[in-house]
Amino acid sequence: MLRMLMFVCAAMIAIPAAAQPPAKPASGYGPPIGMTEALALIERGIEKSTAQGLKMAFAIVEPSGELVAFARMDDVPYASIRLAQQKASTSARLRLTTAELEERVQKGGRTVLLSSDEVIAIGGGVPIVVDGRIIGALGVSGGTAAQDAAVAEETVAPR
Length: 159
Hints:
Blueprint: H1 2-11, E1 28-29, H2 35-51, E2 57-61, E3 67-72, H3 79-94, H4 98-106, E4 125-130, E5 133-141, H5 145-156
Parallel strand pairs: 1-5
Antiparallel strand pairs: 2-3, 2-5, 4-5
Helix pairs in contact: 2-5
């Protein structure tokens, strides 16, 4: 555990450009996020959730939706492990936040997507965009959908 913490701290020396929002909407996929960048974002998410008194799980996936990095805080509900991964994967593959998808479904649109076991319409998944291209996505779970979405957005926002 100490070794991982030391690695994450070293990775935080330079939070990647991946945490910067695009100047324009994402126009497609870019090269996948690297592990060092992913771990730095997870550490940042842990800081954000700790500051709010929340215990959460964090998953970072590449554009294909495949897992790059994962961490969960102590005492997070076990369901949050899979939910964080599903949120990240959905966000990367559909190129939108899962909060936006949740809103669309609640308004009666895009409900057909719910027939797929690979799509989840619960806030907490956000694309990671660099130079207008999606390089991955972050999924957060452990709070309410609104709390998960807020922590995810704050985590990928520029400092």
